[in-house]
Amino acid sequence: MSFSVLPLTPGRMSDLDAVFQARGCSDAKKCYCMYYRLSNSEYRQQDSSTLSARNREAMLGLAQRELAPGLLGYLDGKPVGWVSLGPRSEFRRLKTSPTMRTADDLPVWSIICFVMHGEFRGQGIAHELLAAAIEFARANGATLLEAYPVDRSVAGAKSAPWFGSLTMFATAGFQEVARNRPWRPIVRMALRPA
Predict the structure, then answer these.
(1) What distance lies between CA 60 and its chain's CA centroid?
(2) How far, CA to CA in Å, does 178 sit from each of 4, 7, 14?
């Protein structure tokens, strides 16, 4: 099987839809990865009956910019996964998050979430998307890349697979730099210029 990764563009929105509308992706279907890009008040002001459509429209707007808001993964040409990332400053909710707040003001990029088509989970796609996200951040001038995974080794760790696992990030070379909740470390990787 052939795996490839492409940045989200307006012409690839139907591929993002295919991932987000897949069985088992109900949270992604509602938020379209806008949850962390909006402040809590901005997100809560939306009418729940139009939440999905409005967030999709907002993501389409981001896809029209030069810097893509994330990457799509394809297996033999079929869209199967997504990773959302970008400069930390673009994720308004991180400024007030008690779990994901950082200890400094260094200019980091953040990897926020992964979404996998239910049919293709457990096949290493998140690892492939993480590797592509590292290269994408590097190619776009990032010098520090940060993420907020789940440490599943901690008793009582909540299931939040969209953040990725601490093991996956550690395997890729990320180092823990803070922990604001027992099961949610903040990890970073220094990136050399491309």
Answers:
(1) 16
(2) 32, 29, 37
- Within 8 A by CB and 6+ apart from 32, the residues are 16, 20, 52, 55, 56, 58, 59
Structure pTM? 0.93
Higher pLDDT, 46 or 120: 120
Work out the burial of residue 6: count CB atoms within 10 Å of its CB; fewer than 13 is exposed, 13-18 middle, 19 or more buried. middle
Distance, in Å, from the CA atom of 79 to the CA atom of 188, rounded to the nearest integer, reads 28
**pLDDT over threshold 70, residue 194:** no
Written as one string, the DSSP assignment of 24-88 is T-HHHHHHTT-TTTS-HHHHHTS-TTTHHHHHHHHHHHHHTSSS-SEEEEEETTEEEEEEEEEEG
Q: What is the mean pLDDT of residues 9-15?
A: 98
Residue-wise pLDDT for 98-133, tens only, equals 999 887 889 999 999 999 987 887 788 999 999 999
Strands 109-116 and 175-181: unpaired
Domain range for 42 is 3-190
Domain total in the chain: 1
CATH of the domain at 10: 3.40.630.30
| CB-CB contact of 79 with 6 (8 Å) | no
Please give the helix or strand (H or E) that residue 138 lies within, else none.
helix 125-139
Q: pLDDT, tens digit, for every residue of 139-180?
A: 999 999 999 999 999 988 887 888 999 999 999 999 999 999
